[in-house]
User: Which sequence fits this backbone?
């Protein structure tokens, strides 16, 4: 394989991802993308030019050795491919599915300049899925160090940090508020995009590596951070509790029956399994017409979930234009194929209700793009007199989240910024020595791989702090060595 | 898993469970609640922690059967277990010395005010409890409250025990008689709390109501528990569940509580039609229904 000339490689077209037919998948919750066959994966691997100065690596927030694992895949050495991948990314089966590759690794792949980039995410997924089935343990059990670290939150940030710390021999306990670990991966991102079985398998791998995961514990309520470090004897803490407080637009009618935050809607359906109401006990309101407001992944997941619950039409309302939607490009394409109606350049003004207090529609106004704002995107401005109504029985707000104050409020001395996000130094250490933080609680709503990058970076810093008594910034630790 | 250590019926529809949950017991303060998921696939429901014992590592839950989940929970016996119990959640009651503090509990709401009694007494208050039920057998925790209160006034709608009438009427009399009531803390059915806010408002007495909206996560993540207080949106699970009753939009709360009525009825029917336990429970419920008229959920 390696004998292929670059010109031959250039001739191979990008291997398409096999997927369920739109009409079929719009009525089920099974995964849309079916995954590469071994043949497609190795063909795709041959498209990679094995660049010396591989730009793709820099485009990945955790700097996976992409040409390395792709080369192993092209050689048919899946075991080696998995080793390379797992060395930099403990959850490749997840990132291969949900990373916004088009703005990260694949955006800077040289092949993107002339045609289509190498399908890095698809191959990553392929190798991870293979490893899940064929490789029971990818890790050597390390010698225990005697240090104990508590991790708050079991989203991608917390899980990654826990895995990295366990690899170095520290005893790690992850505390999770919900009854199942995984964070947004289990309560937010739907089954049809990221099967829960994959998250559970990744969590099991961590458990086998000695990570203890304790659900049903809310840090800030069940224990404070200070109690973890004093009474419970943890030598360091990593906080990755996410940015889970939903924002409402503040328009009239938001408390009508039938208005959901995307978090509530998705939690009911994904985490609580409301799409199988009957087998499960948590209900979700049934509606024939649903409107979702927002343009990110959360909005896209909500509207596609609504579609699968039978909404027709399931309408997405977004105040900018399609090009500006922050959602993954693939999700936008899939949503459209599934029959989601896009109403771009309009914004809800009011939720309308009937005389029984149920949602009956939304009143919107059309927008046009004005001058660029601070983010460089053209600012949407309302067109006077252009109001119109969309009938619906359920209205879902997916306009963002902010920092949940539950933990920060009960942690005196923990510095936060004006949005309530935790402030950290270059080593992800907070204003409290020994307490580190990362992921959405630091960045605001970001991505899975950025949260994982933080978890990985923080684990290295925590390791240094525990073993040398200093964080990289020279701040001494307070807790005694065991 | 969280083991049930003791279980007993307090009234035909209200059960007390003593549950092993050491982490929760450890940091429980009056006003806190837990979220419970009875079994895999079950829904998450909020329940007040009626009592806790840190040394024994246990908490007490007092649950009224109003639907499928509470029924399944109340079907548990000592030795059986609950899949998930998370907490303590919510803000604890703000305990102050009000001089004379009056606790008003309606139905199972009495379980919510019960833990407040001891704390108020310890803070130097004179503590009076007014507790109501449909009839004598629905009045709960009278003796337990007696241990922490200066006076306890049971009330029944049918006059079968104690004061004949609603707790709100008894409260009004008490306020007028004593003229020293510094604060009223209440929990119970929404119409009761709403009426009660109307009683205390003209007297300008500080009134705190413990609200019971539908919840899912209990950590501020979903916003499903939002209520309007003083014209502002609040999340009851993290900002409450206790709020100034004079500024709560009770009409909205009542309306939002009816959101899942159809699905709740479905779940109830399913539980009762398709399982043997359900069939037995249905018989029991029918007896109860005959014994009393009209439902009175919290
Ligand atoms: C619907 C949706 C779709 C998304 N789609 C994508 C996508 O396709 N690609 C992508 O890259 N990103 C996506 N994102 C963003 C991504 O999921 C997040 O950036 C990422 O999950 C953040 O990880 P985290 O570890 O910081 O926190 P989270 O994943 O939010 O996890 C935090 C965890 O901490 C727990 N917790 C909170 N408070 C406490 C406490 N006090 N004590 C104990 N536990 C606590 C929470 O229950 C949760 O389990 C999406 C987000 C949403 C909501
Ligand atoms: C902070 C708080 C403390 C509570 N403390 C107690 C207590 O100590 N003892 C007790 O018996 N009850 C208490 N409740 C009420 C209890 O949570 C509901 O009775 C229970 O959820 C009903 O579930 P169900 O399936 O049996 O009934 P359903 O058939 O589902 O519903 C019956 C009634 O309960 C309401 N309800 C349904 N689901 C929820 C939910 N997830 N959260 C809140 N309400 C819901 C419905 O609106 C309806 O009025 C409390 C509620 C809150 C919010
Ligand atoms: S982790 Fe994400 S960004 Fe990095 S290589 Fe994989 S898909 Fe690309
Ligand atoms: S930039 Fe593209 S072609 Fe070059 S090594 Fe990376 S994936 Fe392969
Ligand atoms: S129950 Fe979800 S925010 Fe309160």
Assistant:
């Amino acid at each position: 394989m390696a004998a292929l000339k670059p010109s031959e490689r250039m001739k191979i077209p990008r291997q398409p991802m096999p997927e369920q037919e739109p009409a079929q998948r719009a009525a089920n919750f099974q995964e849309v993308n079916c995954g590469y066959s071994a043949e497609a994966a190795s063909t795709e691997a041959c498209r990679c030019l094995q660049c010396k100065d591989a730009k793709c690596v820099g485009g990945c927030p955790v700097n996976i050795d992409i040409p390395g694992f792709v080369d192993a895949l092209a050689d048919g050495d899946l075991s080696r491919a998995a080793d390379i991948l797992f060395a930099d990314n403990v959850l490749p089966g997840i990132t291969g599915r949900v990373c916004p590759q088009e703005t990260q690794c694949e955006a800077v792949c040289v092949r993107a300049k002339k045609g289509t980039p190498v399908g890095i995410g698809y191959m990553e997924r392929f190798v991870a899925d293979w490893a899940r089935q064929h490789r029971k343990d990818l890790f050597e059990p390390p010698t225990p160090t005697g240090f104990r670290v508590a991790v708050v939150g079991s989203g991608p940030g917390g899980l990654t940090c826990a895995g990295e710390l366990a690899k170095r021999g520290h005893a790690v306990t992850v505390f999770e508020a919900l009854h199942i670990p995984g964070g947004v991966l289990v309560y937010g991102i739907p089954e049809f995009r990221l099967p829960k079985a994959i998250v559970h398998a990744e969590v099991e791998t961590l458990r086998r590596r000695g990570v203890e995961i304790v659900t049903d514990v809310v840090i800030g309520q069940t224990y404070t951070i200070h109690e973890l470090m004093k009474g419970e004897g943890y030598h360091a803490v990593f906080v990755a509790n996410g940015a889970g407080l939903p924002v409402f637009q503040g328009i009239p009618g938001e408390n009508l029956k039938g208005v959901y935050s995307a978090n509530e809607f998705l939690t009911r359906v994904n985490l609580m399994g409301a799409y199988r109401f009957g087998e499960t006990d948590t209900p979700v309101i049934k509606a024939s017409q649903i409107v979702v407001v927002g343009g990110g992944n959360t909005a896209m997941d909500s509207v596609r979930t609504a579609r699968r619950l039978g909404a027709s039409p399931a309408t997405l309302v977004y105040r900018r234009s399609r090009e500006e939607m922050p959602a993954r490009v693939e999700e936008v394409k899939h949503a459209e194929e599934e029959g989601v109606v896009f109403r771009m350049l309009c914004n809800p003004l009011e939720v309308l209700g009937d005389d029984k207090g149920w949602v009956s529609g939304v009143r919107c106004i059309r927008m046009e793009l004005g001058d660029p704002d601070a983010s460089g995107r053209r600012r949407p401005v309302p067109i006077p007199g252009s109001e119109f109504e969309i009938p619906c029985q359920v209205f879902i707000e997916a306009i963002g989240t902010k920092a949940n104050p539950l933990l920060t409020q009960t942690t005196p001395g923990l510095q936060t910024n004006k949005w309530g996000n935790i402030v950290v130094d270059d080593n992800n250490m907070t204003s409290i020595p020994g307490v580190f933080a990362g992921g959405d609680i630091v960045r605001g709503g970001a991505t899975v791989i950025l949260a994982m990058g933080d978890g990985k970076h923080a684990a290295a810093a925590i390791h240094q702090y525990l073993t040398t008594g200093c964080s990289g910034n020279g701040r001494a630790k307070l807790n005694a060595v065991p | 898993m969280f083991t049930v250590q003791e279980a007993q019926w307090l009234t035909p529809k209200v059960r007390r469970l003593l549950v092993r949950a050491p982490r929760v017991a450890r940091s429980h303060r009056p006003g806190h609640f837990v979220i419970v998921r009875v079994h895999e696939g079950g829904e998450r429901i909020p329940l007040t922690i009626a009592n806790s014992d840190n040394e024994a590592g246990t908490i007490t839950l007092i649950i009224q059967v109003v639907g499928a989940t509470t029924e399944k929970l109340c079907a548990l016996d000592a030795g059986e277990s609950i899949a998930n119990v998370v907490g303590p959640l919510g803000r604890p009651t703000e305990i102050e010395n009000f001089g004379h503090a009056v606790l008003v509990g309606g139905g199972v709401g009495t379980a919510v005010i019960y833990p407040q009694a001891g704390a108020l007494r310890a803070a130097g208050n004179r503590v009076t409890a007014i507790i109501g039920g449909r009839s004598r057998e629905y009045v709960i925790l009278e003796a337990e409250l007696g241990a922490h209160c200066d006076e306890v006034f049971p009330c029944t709608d049918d006059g079968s025990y104690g004061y004949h009438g609603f707790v709100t009427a008894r409260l009004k009399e008490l306020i007028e008689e004593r003229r020293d009531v510094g604060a009223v803390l209440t929990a119970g059915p929404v119409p009761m709390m709403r009426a009660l806010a109307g009683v205390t408002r003209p007297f300008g007495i500080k009134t705190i109501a413990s609200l019971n909206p539908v919840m899912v996560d209990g950590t501020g993540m979903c916003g499903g528990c939002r209520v309007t207080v003083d014209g502002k949106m609040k999340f009851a699970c993290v900002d409450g569940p206790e709020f100034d009753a004079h500024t709560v939009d009770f009409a909205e709360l009542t309306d939002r509580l009816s959101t899942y009525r159809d699905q709740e009825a479905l779940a109830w029917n399913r539980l009762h039609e398709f399982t043997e336990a359900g069939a037995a429970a249905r018989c029991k419920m029918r007896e109860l229904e005959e014994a009393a008229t009209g439902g009175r959920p919290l």
The two ends of chain B are 27 Å apart (CA to CA).
